Amino acid sequence: MRIEILNTGSELLLGTTLNTHGRWFGQQLFDLGLRVQRLTTVPDGDAIRDALAESVQRADVVLVTGGLGPTSDDITREATAEVLGVDLIEDEAAMRSLEAFFARLEKTMAPDNRKQAQVPVGADVLPNGNGTAPGIYVPPRLNGAANCAVFLLPGPPRELYPMFKAEVVPRLRSLGGIEESGERILELKMVGVGESDLHQAVDEPLNQVEGLEVGYCARLAEVDLRLIGKPEAIEKGRALVMARFEEDCFTDDGSELEEVVVRTLAAKGLTLATAESCTGGLISNRLTDVPGASEVFTHGFVTYANEAKVNCLGVSEDDLAAHGAVSEPVVRQMAEGALKESGADIAVAVTGIAGPGGGTDEKPVGTVFLAVASRTGETRVHKRMHLRDRKAFKRTVSQNALDLVRRELRHIS
């Protein structure tokens, strides 16, 4: 089944609203054994009509989001009726639903809201229990332009997602005679290995696995390896990858690195503290975004100034003067000071030069030192170089720090 997604709304192209629908639709449709063939985003206005006219000629199903509101720029209904060659009428049931919605809110419905009850003749109205805009399903038999089914769905996720699951999925199953495909998707998330190195090591053997589809996605300080196929093919692929990169794979269940760290700390009954300079608290922020972090995360020291490093963590003033804040002796003392002051089982520390200024010939912009200290082993110090903009530098260093903790935990029973 050829499925296209048409997202409408100028705000999606102006960058004021993040378009998350493509990712969500892709996941939901894959679970049905279906794939999105094309995703198009267009502004409000005539572009909706033009894009829909193209899509219905190529696709078996088009899912349109947005443009079902009461304002003048909400013209998805009108554009659809024009493209498909059908008339619009006011649907009595849709109107009653609108009136009931406003009655529950104890508000008077504005006259402009009446347009939300406009429906192509013969189309199905898809109830919206979370907003005013009902969805619309135009089956192929009503389509005067092509043998294509068209779904008009509200844009807000809180309205779209429940409607898709309740109203769209059953109709897709009926249209395509969909049965369980047996295909699954496994995503192995790696840190500490580059995309090209991973590709060179595993791509050829993975391509020898019959029925396995392989894909790569590089992110900041992370590479995701996607395996798609039947369970037996995925398991063969997974075994090939883990034989080479088990140390670097931090999850196969979609978790973020901070979630893995918090979960592992909890499972081992251990606690963690952080000492941050160049990341300004980002490591602590990522950890505390995870539910349950309060059980394992004790202290977050943001010692940006040298005085703070001395007063909060006991860093030597002589070492700061002799080696500078971005140095092996200082980051070591930061980690060990955080361990001592917090009473935690593990502490991680970072200090670096985020830029764009502040670098020297000896320590250029992008230089960073990281250290992890634990009560059961020696303090480990690492020097890295990350030539990125300031925000990406901070994110990458926070990823490095969390990965050091993850790797340390692997060796603690």
From TrEMBL:
Protein name: CinA-like protein
Listed SMART domains: MoCF_biosynth
Record-linked SUPFAM superfamilies: CinA-like, Molybdenum cofactor biosynthesis proteins
Domain MoaB/Mog: residue ranges: 4-174
CDD domains linked to this entry: cinA
Family: Belongs to the CinA family.
Gene3D superfamilies, per the entry: 3.30.70.2860, CinA-like, MoaB/Mog-like domain
Highest taxon in the source lineage: Bacteria
